[in-house]
Amino acid sequence: MSALKFKSKLFCCQLLQQFFQPVASFRSALGAVVEMNVQEALGDEVLEVFPGCRPADADFSADLDGAESRATTLVEHRDHRIEGILSKQQNLFPLDSNIEQLAQSCAARIIVSRKEVDPSESDDYREVDLDSLEMSRPRSVGAGHITLESLLFSGIDEKLKELGFNGPQTAAAIGTIIGRCCEPGSELATHTWLQKRSGLGDLLDYDFSNLSLYGMYMISDQLFKNKAAIERHVYERERSLFGLRETITLYDLTNTYFEGEGKANGLAARGHSKEKRTDCPLVTLGLVLDSSGFPRRSQVYEGNVSEPKTLAEMLRNLEGGDTSTGPKPTVVMDAGIATDDNVAWLREHEYPYLVVSRKRHREFAEESSVVVKKDDECTVRVQKVFDEKTQETLLYCHSSQREKKDQAIDDRITSRLEEALQKLASGLAKKRCLKKYHRQLSRGVLPADKSCGLG
Prior knowledge:
With 455 residues, the protein is α/β, with parallel strands linked by helices.
């Protein structure tokens, strides 16, 4: 074998032995593994020379000394990387691919040898037949846990105690509130959710299996009696946390229906259903929001209440519980509530307002308007007009898309009317298509003073 080839193999042998030598804490566990790994990497020929061979050639000894110095630096990098792998730490700077590969291999063997040497610290793996598994009392906690933390952060639990709720009543009230948030439904549905599907009882240290359905009804009634105080507390807490400014008040109403007759509910009445359930008794729900979308107050009205008449009552209630100072907020309403009487009431009580006007006659001048939105589908223009008579600022809005929609509606109505007139005109020349006026009079279908002969 040539001297250069022998030097190269010997240096590789020394370097690899250093690389595969385990760190101090695991040296005793690796003996046979390292020897086997080095043997596989270098072959039997070099291993026979390496343990006791020290050639007398001076140049060869000098080369080995330089190689040993370089190998020491590589070994330090390897040791640090092995420790990082064992402690599951990432490298800040990339290492040489050969060092990384050797460190990964060595770390894997150390992990295996640790399990073989000390089986008491190894993970306990068992085989399980999936068909033999049975699930008992499954519970969900994710959404309930998040909602509970938010609720506790708002101080609702302390407020309920302040209002006279005892421990079980507070837990039941919190369960009712969280149940409505996570699984919206009736008291019966919330009761079932708390008892059979939710792990909220473990979080509250309360057994909801002891809560009867009647008890949940009672808790709901108790919460409703204290609704104003709870709403005020929650909004003040939200305003404090998020630094909310009361610059705008949004007010709107909707209604919902009862499946039954609702005889025991004094607010249930028949009216115009927004869900087209005119066959069911209704209740009307009013809600006031601030400019950030946080509810300020809610109210339940009769199902046939006149929506415009609820505005003054709601704003008076807000004034009664308002602790803030400064100018009054701007009231925003849609056309359903923005009657002339309500607008006059707002003006009388010095409320700024922004409403959708009920006025049908609008004189829009395109040359005086400004484009506020324009894309491939729609162009929106706005014209500002000051009304000297009412001292109001009017904003006329024109949408090209809305114009097309209104034109399509007008065309459809016109087409239907023309078809009906054409049908009448065609019937004049057809037998039995024209109803005679005197025959209709004799049958009592038309009044005597009816001047039109066509039915």
